[in-house]
Write a structure and sequence with these properties.
Elements: H1 3-26, H2 34-50, E1 74-76, E2 86-87, H3 90-104, E3 110-116, E4 119-126, E5 129-135, E6 141-143, H4 146-149, E7 167-175, H5 178-194, H6 199-205, H7 210-218, H8 223-227, E8 232-239, H9 248-258, E9 266-269, H10 272-285, E10 293-300, H11 303-309, E11 319-323, E12 327-340, E13 346-357, E14 360-366, H12 370-376, E15 383-388, E16 395-399, H13 442-453, H14 465-473, H15 480-483, H16 488-491, E17 495-500, E18 506-510, H17 513-525, H18 531-537, H19 545-555, H20 558-563, H21 566-570, H22 576-588, H23 590-601, E19 624-628, H24 635-644, E20 648-649, E21 659-662, H25 668-676, E22 680-682, H26 684-692
Parallel strand pairs: 2-11, 19-20, 19-21, 21-22
Antiparallel strand pairs: 1-6, 3-9, 3-10, 4-5, 4-7, 7-8, 10-11, 12-13, 12-15, 13-14, 15-16, 17-18
Helix pairs in contact: 1-2, 13-14, 18-19, 19-26
The protein binds 2-(butylsulfanyl)adenosine.
2-(butylsulfanyl)adenosine binds next to strand 3, strand 8 and strand 11.
Length: about 700
């Protein structure tokens, strides 16, 4: 490598590592594994040693990754919060041990502890009471998250009577139990589905692992929300100006007596063999723990020896961590299948010979998209490495090519939809393939109906996903418009399959009178749901709740929205061309128009109902209005709304008029005059926007 290349690589690595630090600490959404991060960091360290002239002043090697966010008060740590050197092999541990021996001789002991996979916290106690909790931040300054930490039950706010110093700090790790993570992530998934978030975006928005969820939770602004996240904590290091004990081991025992939750899994080790035995033991046992660990921490036990060994710029010389590799298993690929989501997004899935991994049996792994399959170069019946790292769904990390049959065929990504046979499309610059047949492809149709009935949309109580799929498969519904034609006598006693139970037996459900009554009642009640939610319920791509609200306010009715041009829609603040395109596409389909028409016939709300008495404020104080033309409400009602909100109605156009609310059939004379005087002309929808905007 020449100088120029070295500089280029140093710049590149520094930039990438900075981004990864940001992803990890600030966004709590890392995109690469710790191992990969450490490899890059080591490469950078090596290059910087060789070419110190190119070290950037803010190089990631000179800094501890930071988690400071702007929402909390920042506090300086009394004792800097350092990180630990990472090792991945027995050999590196031996090197660490050799350095210790060289520095302090051979009379020392280690304490081995678990390396909890959470986020570091520093707690300050004064006279036995918790007074402050601060995150690691950049190691020097951290965020004051005391209010949030006080919601964690295992962190004592008042200590048991004991011989603790009047003032001390204790450090530990805040984490989320695996079970809690699964429960909360499932909840989050349901909420996102209800909000109509696209399937391919849901995976991105879920937390990747308990650590990210814990870290995201601790940074919430509302402590009541934090309390719902059931966080937990282990404490592992006491800092105090007055000595608490001579050794780390003793101080851990003391801390437990004072009321802190100290893990039971720590051990005094006299030599490296004992250290290695501890590491091996927990490599096996980690899957049975209720929380995640990512390695083992090895610390010199005696405080005086710790002091003698001291620190490097970033890490103590008396401690190191051994990191476990992400858990992997080897198994065989049976087949690749393809799932079709509500929006037509295709997800390839690897069906595997069942294998035990991190405590659960893995039968399937996500292959994400065509690019990922290409990267793996998957062939039929390949032997694959499956990893359960940060991801929720296990992932295939590689293929054992040596086990590949000589004549095995390469797996080609499908060209047609597995459900309806349509040719798949992949838009330029996107990684996902779509089935474009959104009006006939079964999973897309079922998905759309499920979205339509969901809580944030039409909120049809009594109807759930399984019933919808059942009704669809029986041929009773093909679109959400069909729901409103259902008759009780068609439904009572109807039997359909609702998946399989654990033993693979098909489960059945038959609709009883009471459920049918609830379905019909729910459908009836949904006719009062306001237009903006009906619009959201239609499930038009890119039309989420907020966009639907804006469109409803702007156009006032489905009729006007359907007649609007791409420019009229795209010009709306924060809407833009892409959304406009999707709307035009949806409404240009005759079948969609027919469905909307049928919904209207069934009595659903297809226009904004402005209740003039509903809105009262002082938002229009000092403003004058002239109302001209016809509106969705009477002119008197509109004038009353103006007055209810502090505005003044005037009878004619003058230069001092603030707004002319222009309705249909406004007189040409008025229009001419308004244009001459450059009067601000607004529509009825614009007017209601004035009232509802902050
Ligand atoms: S001791 C100066 N003990 O690992 C040493 N750290 O990479 C202070 N961690 O920031 C850390 N379990 O967040 C220590 N038993 C344990 C730990 C532990 C997890 C975390 C901690 C620290 C990071 C260092």
């Amino acid at each position: 490598m020449n100088q120029e290349e070295a500089k280029k690589r140093i710049d590149e690595l520094s930039k990438e590592l900075k981004q990864h630090n940001y992803n990890y600490y600030i966004l709590s959404q890392p995109v690469i594994s710790d191992l990969k991060f450490d490899e890059m960091l080591k490469e950078l360290e090596k290059l910087e040693k060789e070419y110190p002239q190119f070290i950037l002043p803010d190089s990631p090697t000179q800094q501890v990754g930071g988690d400071i966010t702007k929402n909390f008060i920042q506090v300086k740590h009394k004792y800097p919060m350092l990180s630990l050197g990472n090792t991945y092999s027995e050999e590196e541990i031996r090197e660490f041990d050799a350095r210790i021996q060289k520095a302090i001789g051979s009379d020392y002991e280690y304490v081995c502890e678990l390396k909890f996979d959470g986020l570091a916290i520093s707690l300050t106690y004064e006279n036995g009471r918790l007074i402050r909790a601060v995150t690691r931040g950049d190691g020097v300054m951290g965020d004051d998250v005391t209010a949030n930490v006080k919601t964690i039950k295992s962190i004592p706010q008042k200590l048991n009577p004991g011989n603790y110093p009047a003032q001390f700090e204790i450090r530990g790790e805040i984490f989320m139990h695996k079970k809690t993570f699964e429960r909360l992530n499932k909840q989050l998934r349901n909420t996102l589905i209800e909000q109509g978030v696209d399937e391919d975006k849901i995976e991105e928005r879920l937390y990747k692992n308990p650590r990210n969820f814990a870290s995201g939770s601790l940074k919430l602004q509302d402590s009541k929300e934090v309390a719902k996240r059931s966080l937990d904590a282990f404490l592992y290091f006491v800092y105090s100006d007055e000595p608490v004990a001579e050794t780390h081991y003793e101080s851990l025992k003391h801390a437990a007596l004072w009321g802190f939750q100290v893990s039971d899994h720590f051990k005094l080790c006299k030599n490296l063999n004992e250290v290695m035995a501890f590491i091996k033991k927990y490599e096996q046992e980690r899957e049975h723990l209720s929380y995640e660990i990512d390695g083992v921490v090895i610390k010199i036990n005696n405080y005086n020896q710790q002091e003698d060994l001291g620190f490097t710029a970033k890490t103590p010389r008396w401690a190191i961590s051994y990191k476990y590799k992400a858990e992997t298993a080897i198994t065989r690929l049976n087949q690749v299948s393809y799932q079709v989501g509500r929006t037509g997004a295709i997800t390839p899935v690897a069906n595997l010979k069942p294998v035990l991994l991190a405590g659960t049996t893995v039968k399937r792994a996500s292959l994400y998209n065509a690019d990922e399959m290409e990267r793996l170069d998957l062939h039929e019946h390949d032997t694959v490495f499956v990893e359960k790292g940060g991801e929720i769904i296990p992932k295939i990390v590689g293929v054992d090519i040596s086990k590949r049959d000589l004549f095995a065929k390469k797996i080609e990504y499908i060209k047609n939809c597995p459900e309806c046979g349509s040719a798949l499309i992949r838009k330029e610059g996107e990684v996902i393939h779509y089935c474009p047949n959104d009006s006939h492809c079964a999973p897309q149709l079922i998905g759309k109906i499920e979205h339509f009935i969901s809580r944030k949309a039409m909120n049809i109580e009594g109807l759930g996903g399984e019933t919808v799929a059942g009704l669809f498969n029986k041929g009773l519904i093909r679109s959400y418009a069909d729901l409103y034609d259902l008759k009780p006598e068609q439904l009572i006693g109807l039997e359909f399959e609702i998946g399989t139970d654990i033993d693979g037996k098909r489960k059945k459900r038959s609709l009883q009178e009471k459920s049918v009554e609830n379905i019909i009642k729910g459908l009836e009640a949904s006719k009062a749901i306001p237009f903006e939610r009906v619009l959201f319920a239609l499930g038009i791509r890119m039309i989420g709740e907020t966009v639907a609200k804006k469109l409803a306010r702007k156009f006032g009715s489905i009729q006007l929205l359907m007649e609007a041009s791409k420019d009229q829609i795209g010009d709306i603040y924060e809407i833009g061309d892409k959304i406009a395109e999707q709307l035009i596409l949806f409404f240009s389909d005759a079948e969609n128009r027919q469905i909307v028409h049928r919904l209207e016939q069934s009595g659903l709300q297809m226009q904004v109902v402005n209740d003039p008495d509903e809105i009262r404020s002082d938002k229009l104080v000092g403003k004058t209005f002239l109302v001209s033309g016809t509106f969705s409400m009477s002119r008197d009602e509109l004038k009353k709304t103006i007055e209810n909100n502090g505005g003044r109605n005037v009878g004619s156009i003058s230069k001092s008029l603030d707004y002319l609310i222009a309705g249909d059939k406004m007189g040409p004379e008025k229009l001419k005059k308004a244009l001459e005087l450059n009067i601000n002309m607004i529509s009825e929808a614009d007017f209601f926007k004035l009232l509802t905007n902050n």
